[in-house]
Task: structure prediction
Amino acid sequence: MTTAVFENEVVTAAKVRYLTLPGLSGEFALITLDNGHDHTRPSTFGPGGLASLDAALDEIAAHSPRPWRSA
Result:
């Protein structure tokens, strides 16, 4: 989990799940965003949230280094 950079920053966490979908070979990476609050609190990207998104993209790149191409 990425920590807040600013004292009152609500960090939007980027979480990665890998799914298999019919008709695609390999896995599909799904990134979901969660700010830890209910749907009435908008998700924002301060420094902590951007760092979390960057880490999620790095994880995906390390998990599947080849770019996806359609058949």
In short: The helical segments are 47-63.
